[in-house]
Input
Amino acid sequence: MAIRINRVYTRTGDDGLTSLVGGDRVSKNHPRVDAYGEVDELNSVLGLVRSSLGSTGKNASGMPEADNARLQSLLGRLQQELFDLGSELATPPSSSRPGSKSIGDEHIAWLEQQMDELQEDLEELKSFVLPGGGETGARLHLARTVCRRAERKVIGLADNDTLPAGPLRYLNRLSDLLFVMSRWAARKSGIEETLWQHGLEGSRKED
Output
């Protein structure tokens, strides 16, 4: 699909309205706009994660170069898919066309495959993990929480409008993958994760 953007500002949104795919004009706080806006924010956070990794030959993550490149590639694909997901969310049922790009079972299966492969390098968890694990790990935890917020917005949209099952399933699975990726990045960087201690057990001083 050829896209040409010659001018960023259009002045058409100065009244608080925006256009969905197909031309429908809705408020910028419409649930559909809210949903794809959260997905856009998630995509931006993944861009920050990629930036923290550095570029080829300028590894800034502390991971071996092959692992750094693997994470870069994985994040790059996720960013592309999130853009497709945002486009799907921006398309109301009345404007949907046969053959339109949509998030489906094959995308979700791929997310699960990546999780299974990364999990092979990780030890079994015996407590909850506190967000952290170095800069890359911490940014991935942030992405995970933004993904959960996007999921909640999509649930809100689905409560009030017709929506395929793919977007919600994808975000649910993606948040799990981002958690696994954060743990994997910490391990590959040689950074120990901090586990949650219920009620700070073992760290309280006696009165």
